[in-house]
Amino acid sequence: MYPFLVFIILLVNWIVFSGLLDAFHLTLGAISCGVVTWMSADLFFEDREKSAAARMRELLRFPGYLAWLLWEVVIANVHVLKLSFAPDLDDEISPSMEKVKVSLKTDFARYVFANSITLTPGTVTVKVSGDEFLVHAISKEAAAGLAGEMEKRVARVFEPENPILHEAKRETAGA
Q1: How many whole angstroms separate alpha carbon 27 and alpha carbon 19?
Q2: Strand residues in the chain grouped as ranges (E)
Q3: Which of 58-61's residues contact partners 24+ apart within 8 Å by CB, and which partners?
Q4: Where are the domains of the chain?
Q5: Strand partners, 101
Q6: How far is residue 131's CA from residue 3's CA, in Å, rounded to a whole number?
Q7: Phi first, then psi: what are they for 37, rounded to 5°?
Q8: Strands (E), 28-131
Q9: Of the candidates 99, 5, 117, which has an alpha carbon nearest to the alpha carbon of residue 56?
Q10: Is-contact 125 133, C-beta < 8 A?
Q11: pLDDT tens, 1-11?
């Protein structure tokens, strides 16, 4: 099942990016995608326990996460812009290296989380070691935003059974 899914993903990408729909190019694309699938199908979807339906649910949840992340990037850009125009720049910028303990279980969820941190201006994921991330933050405000909502949103997309989501629901219900 997974090699077929990898082949379809690659072929759709081939068609979209090439834009050529004649028989020669479609055949060449299918052959190329078949060879790449044969050589590297085991590199995609390391977690083979998830069903295709679960992967589809992830795919459908991901655009909502991307929209939220885009908004967070805009907010972080405004923060960095304020920092750059602050009259007391030395007081405002306080770079630090923060260790962030992550409860995400799968490598792909951690990958998305680490890259989301790096995409957000003012923070860079420097090192990932198991369930601990080392992150450089440009200011105290950027450092304060590292733990919390972003990890929960990644968990909602890729690990809906993650205990961090159930803890968040209990905290909300108790408040």
Answers
A1: 14
A2: 96-101, 123-129, 132-137
A3: 58/157, 58/158, 61/156, 61/157
A4: 2-43, 52-174
A5: 132
A6: 29
A7: -65, -45
A8: 96-101, 123-129
A9: 5
A10: yes
A11: 678 888 888 89
30/15 Cα distance (integer angstroms): 10
Give strand pairing partners of 125.
135
Torsion of the alpha carbons at 31, 34, 38 and 44, rounded to the nearest 10? 140
* Token digits of residue 6: 């990898």
Taking only the tens place, the pLDDT of each residue in 137-162 is 998 888 887 778 899 999 999 888 87
CB burial of residue 123 (10 Å; 0-12, 13-18, 19+): buried
CA angle 132, 54, 108 (to 5 degrees): 25
What is the reported pTM?
A: 0.71
Please report, as a single letter, which amino acid is at residue 14: W
Q: Are 46 and 108 in contact (CB under 8 A)?
A: yes
Name the token pair of 9.
């993903």
Buried b (16+ CB within 10 A) or exposed e, 152-174: bbbbbbbbeebebbeebeeeeee
